[in-house]
Amino acid sequence: MYAAATESLIKQAREIKEEELQRFCGRIFKQLHTKDVSGDTVDSLQRLSLIVSATKYARELPSDLVMKLQTVLRSSSCPEQLQVLSSSIIRESSPPSVHSLCSDPSHDSRTFSYVASVVLTQAGNKEDVMPLCHHLLKSLESRLSDGQISRHTLPILSKMITAYPEILTDDQVNLVSRKLVDWLRYASMQQGASMSSGGFFSGPRTRQPAPLTEVDGVVVGNFFTVLCVGQSYTEDQWMNMYTFSMIKSWLLTYDTDGTTNTESDDRSEVDSSVMSMVSATSSSSRLLPPKERLREKAFEYCQRLIEQSDRKALKKTDTELQKACIIESVSIMDIICGEDPSYVYRAFPCIKALYGRLNGDLTYARALLPIAQFYLNHSETAAVDSEAVFCQLFSHCPAEQFNEPLLAFEFVQFCLLNASVLQDRVANYRQSFPNLLKFLAWNSSGLIEEFVELLPSLIAPDTAIELLHTILDLPCLAAALDLQQRSACYHASDRTTWDQQGAKVAACLDAFRQPLYRGLFLYILRPEAGTGDTIDRLKMLHEILADMAESPRVVRCAQVVPVLLQVYFNTVTQKADEKMMNQMLLVLLERNSLLYNIKTFNVEVQKVFSTHLQALCRLHPPLIVDQSREILEFASSPANIYSKEDFYTHVVWVIGEYLSVSYDPRCTVELITSFFESLEAVLFEITQVRQSASPPSFSPRLITVLMTTLAKLATRSQDLIPRVSLCLSKMRTFARSAPVMACYSEEDTEEIITRAHELINLLKLPNVAQFVLAPSAGGDSPRWHRDTNASLPQGMRAVSGLLHRHSSFLPTTPYGTWWT
């Protein structure tokens, strides 16, 4: 969040009128023509920079001011502050002609870098940056006395080839490759010259160059790398560092012959291997083509960095630099081995030793990801077993480093990048979803998009049901991880510190450490699947964690669960077999009342359950008969209406829709009667009219769905028609009772009465009722189920008119509202 003063300035910048902006630009134009640049000029340019950057659209500035700013930008004699501001303003304003900026590039390195930043930002195509590219390449070939131009060249070149990889020809790629080899491998071994005071009576003198040292203080005995330490650096050492920073993108962009990867050659692996063996054994790698030689030197450079990373750094900053160099070096070696498989045999001893050194140190967890990527890409080529690497990666990193946001993001990105390979080749990938979901539980708002994409790859037939339970328990996992972190930070004996967390959190921390509940927390924090789909004492766990339900982290985590459930069901229903569908239906019936009590969480989850209950029954209607006992038990309990009305309504609807011999020959009259009697009892109980009765707490929609379902079941066992007709005849009394009139609108009560009379009229013609209320299994696709102008609604109106020509009730509503 910005401070109030900053917000005010940004608002003023966005709201400035065009006329006022033009006058302000005119004043700046006059200030820039004065000989001496004052503080007012700098202040005005800063304000203009804020104005043009504060809006999403580019502001159009006067052409004379733009030309003056370009002049300032290209003038090496101007103060650097003015060049920076001019570059910022031109980049954010409407695009000028970049050709004028490139027409006569400056040889001053600082000026050229500012001009290049504008050109690369404003360029619309490759032709716009071509003059800049030619100047860059010319500067690489030249040997200027100051040596400064090249240091700014490589960052600009790296950005250019990222945007326009095809801009370089084969000869130009070879030229740059040769230069990169020289900078990467042949930098000087002495520190740069530094000026020191010669004392009070003498002027400054130049110190003799001192040798470079390793991070542990030992004098460097091999070639220079970014891990060599000195007080100052020579130009070729700076170029060595710049080269290492861009070598990865260079190798990814250009292949062996200097063309882009989009036009890769078809040279066989045998030829590539032969070339690499030559590079490995030749006494002079200068005989190799430029790109092959660059590979060789880059490979040696990475090996040296990995060796240097084993040294004990004297400074903490050097330790962090070692970690970064390991990640980058392994990634570069992975790219090189991908281009030339014979490098795999040279790389694996080094990578194995590195893994053996790092796998027990959690501070190097991020470095394990490129190592795992290397094993994933090349272990089959080298016939190396990688199982231990991935067991360590998926079991320990998420469990112990889930609270590291950068590691979480990189870990999930690694899984996304390799999802298909991990499914096929890594046995414990899908088994590790309890661990992977810890990243999401702790960083839910930052990783939801990635997990929506990753979740389908984690679904396997043998663990799909356990995954569903785990998704539903995700808020519990977030709460348990929070308690685990707090418990690790505070000792049980330090009650003062515990109590500072708040009474509710302190109570949860006490429960977390009690042996009685240890099994519950061990399950919810389990590292891998296979210990059971869920636990019997889940309700007890919810009670223990009740005081954590308002934690911001738990609430945010609960908000992502409905999104994941949608992805889960959409994926599973495409490939689930009959057994899995039966299991999922049981989970829906069981878990709709076993959810962590978080505000709006239960309602949102039940909405998803309702939607996919219909989808499951539509895909496999025999589910109603398969799970008749559980469905009947759920539907016969009026208590379910008050706590989960939406889901209950959908259960009643699927009973009426799919409990039919048309869908399953096992659907007997006895089964239909048992469902009818249970629903009849429910409808009778909730529509009882008593003087002391409170207003109904359920919607009219539930009443109409129950009536319609009872009518549907009666048409399939016509002995039940008199009973349902009697039940429906009492609906007018219910709808016109005082408690109902006080709660429902006139439109709602009229809808209940109308529906009851339409159904009574329809049931007077049982054969017609059977056709209307119980269509055949193949009859759910024609348009008349949705089209109000088609035959079914007209048929309903015709039947109602024939039987009750003088009725004052309204005609039937379209079919779509019969259950909604």
TrEMBL record:
Q: Which InterPro entries match?
A: AP5Z1, AP5Z1_ARM, ARM-type_fold, TPR_AP5Z1_C, TPR_AP5Z1_N
- Enumerate the SUPFAM superfamilies for this protein: ARM repeat
UniProt domain AP-5 complex subunit zeta-1 ARM repeats: residue ranges? 321-438
The highest taxon in the source lineage is Eukaryota
GO CC: one term? AP-5 adaptor complex
Please state every residue range assigned to the domain named AP-5 complex subunit zeta-1 N-terminal TPR. Answer: 1-280
UniProt domain AP-5 complex subunit zeta-1 C-terminal TPR: residue ranges: 450-802
Q: What is this protein called?
A: Adaptor related protein complex 5 subunit zeta 1
The taxonomy runs: Eukaryota, Metazoa, Chordata, Craniata, Vertebrata
